Amino acid sequence: MEINYAKYSDGLVPAIIQDTCTNKVLMLGFMNEAAVEKTLELQKVTFFSRSKNRLWTKGEESGNFLLLKDLQVDCDNDTLLVKVTPVGPVCHTGADTCWNEENSTSNFLQQLEDIIQQRKESAAENSYVASLFKKGINKIAQKVGEEAVEVVIEAKDNDENLFLNESADLLFHYLILLNAKGYSLKDVTNILEQRHK
């Protein structure tokens, strides 16, 4: 990939940040060669901040990282398209995009999958997710079964709040099980899409 940094007097090329799941444009930043190298190294989007006059990894203070999924250069080699999975809000205002837009529920599920992966890797002692992974696949599968039974029980009653909360618990633990087996929700939705065709 050849990037023409010399086209701009400051050596900074525009970087359009796009959500890989929703295709929404999230923000615009600027990168020099060092920022691109750091982005590829960390797999987290890093810009050159003109206000800070240094490299700046998005989320380094807030924890709202942009996880790199793909990086492309345009036909003139002077603008980047950076496809990401955002972890948390992108804009400093708390919005999902710098145009104050909210992302879809499916994107939140992808964010949740990324959070599950991070907690699995960190193996923090106070993390519920990490503790489940530590107990192994049998415990994770058992937890999915327990949550499924609770959903069935609540489905027979008329307490909407309990039913929805148990449904959320089931989905959350199912995502953990998918991760433990080396899969993601996308692998399951791909099968559903193929069946639909």
Compact description:
Helices cover 45% and strands 19% of the residues. The protein has 197 residues and is α+β, with helices and mostly antiparallel strands.
Tell me what the structure shows:
- The protein has 197 residues and is of the alpha+beta class.
- It folds into two domains: 5-86, Roll (Ubiquitin-like (UB roll)), CATH 3.10.20; 105-196, Orthogonal Bundle (Helix Hairpins), CATH 1.10.287.1080.
- Helices cover 45% and strands 19% of the residues.
- The chain contains six helices and six strands.
- Strands 2-1-6-5 form a four-stranded mixed beta sheet. A two-stranded antiparallel ribbon has the order 3-4.
- It is elongated.
- The mean pLDDT is 91.
